[in-house]
Amino acid sequence: MVQAGETTRVTIALMPQSYALNEIVVEDRQGTSTQSTSTVQRIESQAIEQQDAADVSELAPLMPATHVQTNSRGQTILYFRNAGDRQVGQFFDGALLNIPWDNRVDISLIPSAVVEEITVTKGVPSVRYGANVLGGAINFQSRTLDAPGRTTEVTGAVGTAEQRRASVTHLRRTGQWDYTAALQYAARGDQPLAENVDLEYNQPNQERRVNTDRRLVSGFGRASYRFENGGQMGVSVLHVDAEQGVAPEGNAVQSETRYWRYPLWQKTTLIANGRVSTGSNTSVRGAVWGSRFAQDIADYRSVSYDTLNQVQRGRDLTAGTRVIGSRQLGIGTLTFSLNGLTSRHEKGTVLGGKTGGDPDSTTTFQQQIFSTGLEFETQLTSAIQASMGVNLDGADYPQTGPFPERDPFYAWGATAGLRGTVSDRWALRGAVGRKSRFPTMRELYGAAIGKFIPNPELQPVTAWIGEVGIDYRSPSFFLGSTAFLNRVYNTIDKRTFTREIIEEEGFPADYLGKEQRINLQGARIYGVETTIRWTPSPRVQFDGNLTWSRPRGFTEAGTTQKLDEKPGVLGTGMVSYDFPFGVSAMGQVRYIADVYARNEQNEFVTLPSSPSTVFDARLSYDLSTVTTLVDGRVYVRGENLTDEAVFIGLGLPRPGRSFRVGFGFDLTF
């Protein structure tokens, strides 16, 4: 007890059980600086939890100016600001997830249970991300405790269309060690079909989208040691085992349709990373990783999926490294980065409906990619920050299967940016840069089981990128708006061989109806991305973003044309309210408009559902308000409540209305 006139000192130690970033290579442990000259956005754990996602593709509505599309191969891909295909680098704890054969990865098969935060970089990515990221970069950061203790999280859910989900995640931290271990299972039957979807072909069932079932099993483990001088070393492994169907195109006749399934989709990634201080002004961060990817494509004869034509087997082995060294100079910070990888792809075919045994033939491809760069950041004045960087990228293809050898590709890049603090609430920023993207081995040499004609003469894509943004921040309100412009050269797109093309250019007659990737004159994409967040009270939060853009490609005649499946308007809004008695409600709306697609006659037509509006809702209850025995929640979630028909491509609709109920318990001891 303190008497009048006395002074007593009390020491209080706080031990929060919060989570921290586990990003080693791309940025430091505190995450990306909010003072970046380009657009950097962070998705926090609370928003991720409210999505109740089984995989990271279901987190896309949280990312402004992000379009998610499941293509005719069944791959679900992220696109930022209408960037072209294979232009976004996707990382997990700083290690590249992209499979080099195709330079993309199906994010619907990457589990969300271990993702704590997401960092999205748009505009002009830093040279630290390496090659092939002219469309931006995203890093999924795994979970770890921020203070000594341990906790175990158990989640589960069931829903319409045979949805089933379950996960167990255990986290522990001692004084210098921390551990994470997670197991996740997710499965579904064929997805629900919206009531007003009318597919002319390949849809025998009017309630369920044929051949869209999936099973996903994953495991993750990580252990890291923290040195007393602030350094850290860690090892982690992520394994994903999945199988799924590929929805057939509902606008194409049988002879032009893929009837595919993936009976095998496995990806194992082993990552070792760390950071050390080599002096009072110098630090080095780095990572090495290796991955194995195995995929079987089962090609069927018809929509009944009972007669197998062949199985194409792909096996990829990849090893990569990233090293980032920084030194504090008297006038700023100089950073050196080195990224490199080598990857081998083996492709084999099993003919005649066999499901086992060795392939009848095997072809091997190999590529090596490197990127090295320098970046300098300085504070010109107390209110103005500047950055600049240069990089050199290269790609070599030592093995090209049955195709002739080819010379390596080389490309240079540069970045520059300014950020000015107008006041404690207003900031202006601008950035400009040159980036490149090399053609992948699949674009050069892949035939997609006879659907494509290879084109080994493809050239790299190059882009000049610029953006200007303004941000306003207060304790309860954020508003950011960014105008962007991408001028792309040698855009890689595809065309369908028509009779006119075959006759004019002298191609064989059996090319009719097949596709080929080609370099176009280029493309120009400009637009405005606006993001808003308002928290008028601790119980209420509004989040929204709206992006308008005009994506156009240039033709050889000097005119412009629309770009395939690139939305001109894209927006998301969300409002959440926490009631005082433990109930939380969330409503979400997604809007998309001005989307065009290229048909078999190489003509652009509006997608049937453009524009479209989709409503989602979630209601949850915090169990800790009624019992101290468990810290957890139960929830019910509905998606596409109005059963809106939304097409992401010709003949490829999104799922219709669905519901699920679930729970999550945190067991801390």
SSE diagram, text form:
Layout: E1 39-43, H1 45-51, E2 66-70, E3 76-80, E4 88-92, E5 95-96, E6 115-122, E7 136-142, E8 149-159, E9 163-173, E10 177-188, E11 214-226, E12 232-245, E13 260-279, E14 282-300, E15 308-329, E16 332-351, E17 361-379, E18 384-400, E19 409-421, E20 426-437, H2 441-445, E21 461-473, E22 477-489, E23 492-496, H3 499-505, E24 515-519, E25 522-537, E26 540-554, E27 560-562, E28 569-578, E29 583-593, E30 596-598, E31 604-606, E32 612-622, E33 631-639, E34 647-649, E35 652-653, E36 658-668
Parallel strand pairs: 4-7
Antiparallel strand pairs: 1-6, 2-3, 4-5, 6-7, 8-9, 8-36, 9-10, 10-11, 11-12, 12-13, 13-14, 14-15, 15-16, 16-17, 17-18, 18-19, 19-20, 20-21, 21-22, 22-25, 23-24, 25-26, 26-27, 26-28, 28-29, 29-32, 30-31, 32-33, 33-36, 34-35
